[in-house]
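Severity: low
Component: inverse-folding endpoint
Summary: output formatting inconsistent between runs
Steps to reproduce: submit the following structure tokens with default settings.
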């Protein structure tokens, strides 16, 4: 079985000291740094852009797992790549031509992620799975941190994992939204190998990030 990777979402970090928070995550055993980018248009919130990512890049060598919740996304891909993103994840609904956006990310030598909202079906991206490095299954509707996990998403994870296995594909299955100590095991058993978590990692066990990362990974 593939190693379970933990990608803490800095959406739940202390924004007044993001660089130090990222160092803390690296020292506590995080595998990736999950960066949620929201535009106030595609989702009802606004977070950070390329200049902040470029600054944060100086604080760690961990891969930046950048989730673009912005529309139209295509024209911004290059800016986020140049800022230091390692994985660029986009939503099919946010681009006029998904395959063009996939190839642009690849041309920029970055890993390609595609995100599926809870109500977005797998068949939207099924023909592109050979070109994709990661599929991000949203287990909440994106836009805010701290939401409750939608349990119906488990069946979608299982279905995607079966497609991956049946076709001998290599993409990672990442899950984001309400991941905690109660549901992480079920998510892993369904087929996920990367867990995104913000609130649980930063808030549980009195903010003991190392313990929280280790607990999520070993559930």
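Observed output (run 2 of 3):
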């Amino acid at each position: 079985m593939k190693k379970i990777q933990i990608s803490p979402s800095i959406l739940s970090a202390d924004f007044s000291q993001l660089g130090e928070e990222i160092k803390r995550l690296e020292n506590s055993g995080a595998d990736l740094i999950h960066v949620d980018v929201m535009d106030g248009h595609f989702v009802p919130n606004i977070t950070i852009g390329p200049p902040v990512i470029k600054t944060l890049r100086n604080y760690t060598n961990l891969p930046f797992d950048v989730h673009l919740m912005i529309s139209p996304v295509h024209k911004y891909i290059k800016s986020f790549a140049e800022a230091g993103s390692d994985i660029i994840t986009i939503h099919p609904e946010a681009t006029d031509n998904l395959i063009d956006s996939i190839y642009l990310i690849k041309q920029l030598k970055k890993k390609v992620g595609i995100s599926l909202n809870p109500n977005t079906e797998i068949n939207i991206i099924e023909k592109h799975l050979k070109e994709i490095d990661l599929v991000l299954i949203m287990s909440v509707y994106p836009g805010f941190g701290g939401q409750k996990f939608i349990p119906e998403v488990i069946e979608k994870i299982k279905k995607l994992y079966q497609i991956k296995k049946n076709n001998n594909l290599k993409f990672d299955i990442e899950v984001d939204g309400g991941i905690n100590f109660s549901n992480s095991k079920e998510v892993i058993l369904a087929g996920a190998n990367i867990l995104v978590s913000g609130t649980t990692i930063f808030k549980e066990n009195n903010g003991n990030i190392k313990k929280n990362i280790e607990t999520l990974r070993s559930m």
